Amino acid sequence: MVAGMVIGFIWISTFLMACNDFAVICASITWYFSRKDIADSDGIAGDADVWKGFLWTYRYHTGTLALGSFMLTVIALIRGIFNYVAEKMYKASGSNGCTKCLIGCIDCCLACFDKFCRYLT
After folding, report:
1. Among candidates 66, 74, 76, which has minimal Cα distance to 111?
2. pLDDT tens for each residue of 52-65
3. Contacts of 93 (CB under 8 A, 6+ apart)
């Protein structure tokens, strides 16, 4: 039960970070494509609609952000399990060079896959 709650906490925190990133992206896109030759009533040229980003987040893209954050949670869980097993293997084998190389290669592949999935989400 505790493991499920920890996984759920990681998933929710990853989801909230993804929603925040999406709202910032929408705000920067609306500013970039707004008219900057005419100043508004506030005297600043260009508009950045942060509220539109939050609206789009929770109205149109909630499922996409939840799926992406779930993928990142599963990858973080796999990396955590691997790090635990790798630590136990390293302690059991002493300072074996082959074990160090194998652990380093697998860790590098998992880190590369993690960065790839973060780029996709």
Report:
1. 76
2. 888 888 899 999 99
3. 99
Note whether 28 and 46 are within 8 A (CB).
no
Transcribe 64-93 into DSSP letters. HHHHHHHHHHHHHHHHHHHHHHHHHHHHHH
**Closest alpha carbon to 53 in 10, 20, 93, 14:** 20
Asked if 70 contacts 98 with a C-beta cutoff of 8 angstroms, the reply is: no
pLDDT in tens, 94-106: 778 888 898 889 9
CB atoms within 10 A of CB 99: 15
Burial category of 14 from C-beta neighbours within 10 Å (exposed 0-12, middle 13-18, buried 19 and up): buried
Tokens for 60, please give them.
Answer: 């149109």
One-letter amino acid of 33? F
Model pTM? Answer: 0.76
Is residue 14 within 8 A of residue 69, CB to CB? The reply is yes
